[in-house]
Amino acid sequence: MVTPGVRREAVADLREHHGVSERRACQALGVDRSVVRYRTCRGDDAAIRQRLRSLAGERRRFGYRRLGLLLAREGVRLNHKKLRRLYREERLQVRRRGGRKRALGTRRPMLLPAAKNERWSLDELDATGKRRGYPTRVVSDNGTELTSTAILRWSQERHVA
Fold first, then answer.
1. Alpha-carbon Rg of the chain, whole angstroms?
2. How many angstroms separate the CA atoms of 134 and 152, rounded?
């Protein structure tokens, strides 16, 4: 779909380069003459745009609705559709926050134990260690940081890899 502005330019280009009338240029391009003759009745929004840009610069995470409330407090009342249009034209859209960062690549495959007591993956390590003897290696799942620190300390005290 071609916008009215592009249609106006096409008609003006045809008139300028080929010396045809507006009526013939519109007929050749299939454009209604009211599109070519249309003049906007919008006022100058330069002051509102400038204030919107400055507010968006101060409060980067605010969207157009919250910025509209700030403008309303200052006495600038805008229709929500016009506010959204100005916000979009000024390219003030708030960027979406990125998701959780995930590990890239693949993990090293877990080695399977070759003998008894070679590896444990248990919580109650001391009780089992007294009963069966301590392992040569302990594997911890990705628990909380406190758990990882406790297992690290436990393995260092008992000289377990």
1. 35
2. 15
Whole-model pTM: value is: 0.47
pLDDT in tens, 102-116: 777 777 777 788 888
What angle do the packed helices 125-132 and 145-157 form, to 10 degrees?
A: 30
By residue count, the chain amounts to 161
CA distance 155 to 161: 7
Residue 138, strand partner residues: 120
Beta bridge partners of 119: 137
Determine the Cα angle at 82 with ends 76 and 83, to 5°: 55
Task: Please give the C-alpha separations between residue 27 and each of 6, 24, 76, in angstroms, as whole numbers.
Answer: 16, 5, 44
Q: What is the mean pLDDT of the chain?
A: 84
